[in-house]
Amino acid sequence: MTDHTVSSDFIPAAENHDADIDKLFGVAGPLSQAVGGFRPRQSQTEMAKAIANAIAGRQTLIAEAGTGTGKTFAYLVPALLWGGKVMLSTGTKNLQDQLYLRDIPTVRKALNAPVSVALLKGRANYVCHFHLERTLQNGRLTSRDDVGYLREISRFMKTTSSGDKAELSKVPETAPVWNLVTSTRDTCMGAECQYYQDCFVMKARKEAQQADVVVVNHHLFFADVALKDTGVAELLPTANTVIFDEAHQLPDTATLFFGETVSTSQVLELCRDVLAEGLAHARDGADWAKVVSTVERAARDLRLAFPQDIVRLAVNQIAPSSAFFPALDTLRDELHGMTAVLETQAERAETIEQCRTRAVELGNKLSAWSSANNAGGAEAGAGDGAHDKVLWVEAFSSSLQLHQTPLSIAPIFSKQREGSPRSWIFTSATLAVKNDFNHYTSQMGLWNEPAQSWPSPFDYPNQGLLYVPENLPQPNSFDYTDAVIDAALPMIEAAGGRTFLLCTTIRAVNRAADRLREEFEKRKLPFPLMVQGESGRTELLDRFRAAGNAVLIGSQSFWEGVDVRGDALSLVIIDKLPFSPPDDPVLAARIDAMEKKGLNGFVHHQLPETIINLKQGAGRLIRDERDRGVLMICDPRLISKPYGRRIWQSLPPFRRTRDAAMAKAFFEPVQADAGQATPA
User: Fold this and answer.
1) CB–CB of 499/492 below 8 Å?
2) What DSSP assignment string belongs to 314-379?
3) What pLDDT, in 10s, does the model give residues 271-311?
4) How far apart, in whole angstroms, are the C-alpha atoms of residue 444 and residue 542?
5) Is residue 561 a contact partner of residue 489, using CB atoms and an 8 Å limit?
6) What distance in Å separates the CA atoms of residue 157 and residue 161, rounded to the nearest whole number?
7) What's the CA gap between 580 and 207, in Å, rounded?
8) 33, 422 in Cβ contact below 8 A?
């Protein structure tokens, strides 16, 4: 990555801003006057000082802030005033929009700070003029919905200045039509495109380069570091300050992008496009149907090498006699044959040339996977170089993915942080295990960097209760989810609905949903039941808040980044401790590598990972000073295992009980208040 000198006109020499921060966050300060309900909080002020000092000294800071600290303002104030060119990366696109549309404008206005702000997303978020035009002409739409959506998108294009699909709420984010009207790195024409001047992706990148503050998300940040395709690579060298919010997600996101994945569905998509483009521009050049069908068959045969429905295997777990290895060779050969045909026809159309490039790239990825395997890639974890990779295979009902995943992202990420000195801030509510940051710093390669933790201002002993029910079976027993529901029902009734049931697997979500539906009907309970997957996350949450007495069942995506304040949520039930599935090949290889170094994989990796995850889930319960509620963790290992103590000591300091009557009684004053508040 080429590095330029960092623009320093906006950054003062390393100086102390403590007095400024005290004024800004004080009772009579600008935030107090401009933001409704703002109250000075010591944790927030102290955190803002630490961040301001790290920015001034161009240092790294790992900052854990308990729920309710107000960490967003704690980093935005110093960043907008003294951060110079700031790159702000968040965990999700939702949070990205919230920062750009709500939080930054609020702080900027309160401080009267003259900074320009830009929002940058991945190219799949922007409508592409060229692909929209092509789709309108081709009419290759399969469903009536898509025809209507396409009309909406076409209308939207006449009025939008950003082209960001988040602005068009009439078309669901998951509608398949989006794939036809956005570009990918493979299908973008670049400067050759007739619409280049009006391109929304280019416009967003240009704005980002000129802005003082750029809001991106982790996926975009790391996709760029890996692919150089999102405009971040040009931004990073000029940034003085890089802030990662929801920084606990970085290890997973970086692992995803520093790895390589190639899938049979990519091959089948390419075949579909080759057939369409070949027939459109070079009908006489080849028997396109035949060229494509041999590759399609080879891709399907590769998937069929595993008869099971869903498979995750490290390459060294696949029997050497398996049909998988010859099927992989066949797919590479057939793809090579198709590439040769495309080469002879490529100059006849830009789109055929594009197909050729994609075919070459897919061929290279398949070859790279095979040669890594032949070089003993699965065992690579034994070394401790930066390039150790885990090779593994994942099969879904109709596709197969071949993955190469780095054993550790620490060496790769450390390399990214080299170059001109700049400030790196990593913040989240969950980075430490009982104030110990070792797990996080070793994952990210942030050894010896300063880390600090600020406690939540909430009165946890009075606001919350941790309840672990008695007599539950072991979590691996066959009827475990039913036992959880039996224990949960009296609590849900006592809470008057108003419950999140967080499960560790989709199977548990579905079983719990079936049981609760049945029980609510049998007992005539008036609680609306909402289940992840029945509609989008945002819509489910809106309905949950509006209902006021609903029960929502979700898996991983509801464990974090979900904010329900007030009485609508009073009970959070967690079915079991969120240990990673034991069949995860990457986890197995990481544990193996740790144990070769004399560390205990469970104590040093799985346990801290689980605690950080659990803290996220527990953090859904108390969201402001007036919230009250019960956190019910159903897993008996919290009490019976020696490590259980370490887990609950890392949770907020709720009062604790195993007595169901005492847990139910916790809701009584809330019910009484609610009763008094009923309008006459």
Assistant:
1) yes
2) EGGGS-TT-THHHHHHHHHHHHHHHHHHHHHHGGG-HHHHHHHHHHHHHHHHHHHHHHHHHTTGGG
3) 999 999 999 899 999 999 999 999 999 999 999 999 887 88
4) 35
5) no
6) 8
7) 40
8) no
* Pairing verdict, β 629-633 and 213-217: unpaired
Q: Which residues contact residue 242 at a Cβ distance below 8 angstroms, ignoring those fewer than 6 apart?
A: 86, 87, 89, 236, 422, 423, 424, 425
146 has a pLDDT exceeding 70: yes
Alpha helices in 65-103 (DSSP H): 71-82, 93-98
Would you state the pLDDT for residue 309?
79
Q: Report the C-alpha gap between 546 and 569 in whole angstroms.
A: 11
| Token pair recorded at residue 181 | 């009207």
DSSP label at residue 658: -
Instruction: List, for residues 104-128, the tens digit of each pLDDT value.
Output: 999 999 999 999 999 998 888 999 9
Rounded to 5°, angle at Cα 79 from 123 and 422? 80
Read off the pLDDT of residues 349-395 as tens digits, 9 standing for 90 and up. 888 998 999 999 999 999 999 988 887 654 443 344 445 899 999 99
* CA angle in degrees (0–180, nearest 5) for 402-404-406: 155
For residue 479, count CB atoms less than 10 angstroms from its CB and return exposed for 0-12, middle for 13-18, buried for 19 or more: exposed
SS3 513: helix
Cβ neighbours around 273 below 10 Å, total: 19
The string of pLDDT tens digits covering residues 511-521 is: 999 999 999 99
Residue type at position 613? N
Q: Residue 484 corresponds to which tokens in the numbers above? A: 């959880």
Question: The tokens of 138 are what?
Answer: 């081709």
The residue written with tokens 């989810």 in the block is 481
**What is the per-residue pLDDT across 530-583, written as a single tens digit (0 to 9) for each?**
999 887 788 889 999 999 999 999 998 788 888 888 889 999 999 999 998 877
- Who contacts 325 (Cβ-Cβ below 8 Å, separation ≥6)? 318
Task: Provide the 3-class DSSP secondary structure of residue 575.
Answer: coil
pLDDT tens, 152-168? 999 999 999 999 988 88
Q: Which amino acid is at 345?
A: Q
Hey, what are 193's tokens?
């495109």
Furthest-apart CA pair in the chain: how many Å?
82
Q: For residue 677, name the pLDDT band (cuts at 50, 70, 90).
A: very low
Say if CB 74 and CB 53 are below 8 A apart.
Answer: no
By three-state DSSP, how is residue 292 classified? helix
pLDDT at 652: 93
- Calpha distance 377→617 (Å, rounded): 36
Alpha helix ranges (H) inside 129-215: 129-138, 144-159, 177-181, 200-210
For residues 141-145, give the mean pLDDT.
75
Dihedral pair phi/psi, residue 35, rounded to 5°: -110, 120
Looking at the DSSP bridge assignments, the partners of residue 88 are 215, 243
The mean of the pLDDT values for the chain is: 88
* Chain position carrying tokens 């034991």: 582
Tell me how far apart the alpha carbons of residues 494 and 489 are, in angstroms, rounded to a whole number.
9
2 or 321, greater pLDDT: 321
| Cα(587)–Cα(581) distance, integer angstroms | 9
